[in-house]
């Protein structure tokens, strides 16, 4: 799964867009975020500029699956 496919799944499952932030510019506060940094993929919850529950993953696919797991639980 890649970010484009993840976006499709989130739309199909009617997950509100204000619950997540996918490597886009804009507000990531109080959202589950997916970011790429230094060759790694990071999934975390951002609040007031602080990352919580951080998962560092090796592949985009792993990160997308982790993001989906968090948003659908």
Cα Rg: 11 Å
Number of helical segments with 4 or more residues: 2
Instruction: Sum up the overall morphology in one term.
Output: globular
Order of helices and strands: HEEEEH
Helix content: 25-40%
Structural domain count: 1
Question: Overview of this structure, please?
Answer:
The chain is an alpha+beta fold and 73 residues long. It has one domain (3-72). Helices cover 32% and strands 36% of the residues. A 4-stranded mixed sheet has the order 1-2-3-4, with helices on one face. The radius of gyration is 11 Å and the shape is globular. The chain starts with a helix and ends with a helix. The model has no long low-confidence stretch (mean pLDDT 95).
Summarize it.
With 73 residues, this protein is α+β, with helices and mostly antiparallel strands.
List key phrases describing it.
73 residues; alpha+beta; 4-stranded mixed beta sheet; 4 strands; globular
Per-chain topology:
Elements (H helix, E strand, L loop, with lengths): L2 H10 L7 E3 L8 E7 L2 E8 L2 E8 L2 H13 L1
Parallel strand pairs: 1-2
Antiparallel strand pairs: 2-3, 3-4
